[in-house]
Specification:
Blueprint lengths: L5 E4 L6 E4 L7 E5 L6 E4 L13 E3 L4 E5 L8 E5 L5 E6 L1
Antiparallel strand pairs: 1-8, 2-7, 3-6, 3-8, 4-5, 4-7
């Protein structure tokens, strides 16, 4: 199973899927370098840039904690128009 935290560099316009090792009550998504906005979901739906129903991190070094709304392994899907570095961990 996948460990937590997980780190990735996003590819502009492509969805990156990170599956954590179990069902977590909360997930922290961190923009490590703040290179671009990051849109993400934690309900196994597919995010879009600027899409409704997506959480967003602004183009700055910051993080957000959110509650997944599904059961089973925690799945975080991320997308950006740039190539920011992100870190995702279960809490």
């Amino acid at each position: 199973m996948a460990v937590t935290p997980q780190h990735a560099t996003l590819v502009a316009g492509d969805v990156t899927t990170l599956t954590l090792d179990r069902d977590y009550n909360r997930v922290e998504v961190l923009s490590v370098d703040g290179a671009a906005e990051v849109y993400f979901t934690v309900d196994k739906s597919t995010p879009t840039v600027g899409g409704n129903g997506c959480h967003v991190l602004p183009a700055t070094i910051c993080s957000a904690e959110v509650e997944p709304t599904t059961s089973g392994a925690t799945v975080v899907k991320l997308i950006s128009t740039g190539t920011p570095k992100v870190s995702v961990r279960g809490l």
